[in-house]
Structure formats: C-alpha cells, structure tokens
Amino acid sequence: xxxxxxxxxxxxxxxxxxxxxxxxxxxxxxxxxxxxxxxxxxxxxxxxxxxxxxxxxxxxxxxxxxxxxxxxxxxxxxxxxxxxxxxxxxxxxxxxxxxxxxxxxxxxxxxxxxxxxxxxxxxxxxxxxxxxxxxxxxxxxxxxxxxxxxxxxxxxxxxxxxxxxxxxxxxxxxxxxxxxxxxxxxxxxxxxxxxxxxxxxxxxxxxxxxxxxxxxxxxxxxxxxxxxxxxxxxxxxxxxxxxxxxxxxxxxxxxxxxxxxxxxxxxxxxxxxxxxxxxxxxxxxxxxxxxxxxxxxxxxxxxxxxxxxxxxxxxxxxxxxxx
Length: 323
Known about the structure:
globular, 8-stranded parallel β-barrel, TIM Barrel, 11 helices, two-stranded antiparallel ribbon, alpha/beta
C-alpha cells in the first residue's frame, strides 16, 4: 500500500501557492535602461524588442512607470555623444549618465539609481579599458574607473556597478569613494562576468562592440567555475556590497556555488541575448512569453539569486499583479 503521495500537495493552485518553495517578487528586480543625449528620443533597439534608447526626458517618464510598478531599482547605461580612446565622457561631470542621475534624483522619488561603471560604451575602440597596441592595460584603466565612479556618486547615484572585470578595481573604487566622502555609496560588483556570446544585442544597444579582438583577456572563460568563486571572494574582500554573476541562465550552477560560499547578496543578470531569444520565439508563436519568462526568472532565483537584473522587469511586475 502506498502511503506517501507527493501529488496531494499539487491538487489545486491555492495549495501549490501555499507550499511553493521559491517565490518570485517584484522586489527582486532591477530594470536596465539605456540613456542618450538629446530630447524626445525613444529609439527602439531592433534586436531587443520593447527596449529603447531614451533621452533624459523620456527616461524620467520610464522611471516613473518603473516606480509605479513597484520595481525598486534601475541600472543606467550611458551612450555618449562622442567616443575617444580615453573614454572621456565616462567621467565628465556633464556626461550623459551624470546628467541622467541628477535629473532622476530631482524628479523621481523612492527609486534606487544604480549606474554601470565601465568604459566600453565611451571608447572609440569598444574595449573596457585603456589600450596599448592591442593589449588592454589594467591599472591605467582602474584609475579611470575610479574617476568615473566618483563622478557618478557626485551626481547622486545610490549604487555603482563596475562591470569591466579589471583586477583590483573594487578596492580602488571603494577607496576613491571613501576619500571623497561617499562611504555610504554601495558597490554591486560584476564579480563573475563571463566572455559570453549572449551579449550581442546589448552591444548593438550600447554601440560598444570591440573594434578589434575580443574581451577574453579580461572577462572569464565560460568553462571555469572555481575561478568564479575566486573572483567573488576577492571582490568581497575588496569591499563589494553585492556580487553578481553574468549571464544568468547558462550559469545557474555558478549562481548556486556563489550563494553557497557568501553571505552578501547575490545578483544575476538575465542578459540581452537571453531576453531577445525569448522575444523572438514569442513573436513566432513558438512559446508563451509570460510562462517562459516567469519560469526562467524563477529558476534564477531558485539557483540562489537575491536580485535579478532583467529587461523583462516591467512585464514581470504586471504579471505578478503589481500594476
């Protein structure tokens, strides 16, 4: 006679909700956005349906909608007017991200403003650092990352997200912020960022494809797991408040392993390629978008992510009944 029947706990939606082990919430979400110079600009990104390059005035409208949906934070990526080999606009006090942060802090209350700290959008060669020949220099790059981070904090950013994968940059940014009196400005480090093929649509959106070579000398090899734990441990020792795994969907095992070794919050980035594959298949009618997105994000959270950065955030908030 069978006495143990797991199906008893699946007999109704109400019961399934009561015993569900992993609960996805709007509070888990961060919405990435792209900001450009100009006004009245809402330029849809061809490879990312439903995502736009926004001028600051349009960004304000978008941020107000994000706040109304209950999403707690946005992540800003800036696209400059001009690029050069030293990424000058990245740390210009009047750069596009700095302008956007000041406008958001003045006009949108109760929304956490996170800024991406990297140079690739701002360099003429598309790499994340200073280049000599075809070699990306670590320490000179870190110096500019510190300048960029401090300029974002001075503009009013609540948290900084260095995504460059240069060695020792978290410690340098932490020291630079503290020296300028920004001890309370947090760092969400892209700690285990892989050299992934899933970034293609983002590179179109941010206009930051490398003009030569690739990013494999600084972003991580997709075959490595132990190295991810080393990177995470180093970033925590250097002062990271939150650590991130990027991409998310192909690296669920890394998220789990990171979660198991640390007590700091773990973020995961559901990146552009993951987003665009779902949108393309949904447009073809090959899958049900809401069901697949919620399943994907739930798997990311089940793997151990406390925070999920996703371009699906607004839709997910609506599906979860927040707006």
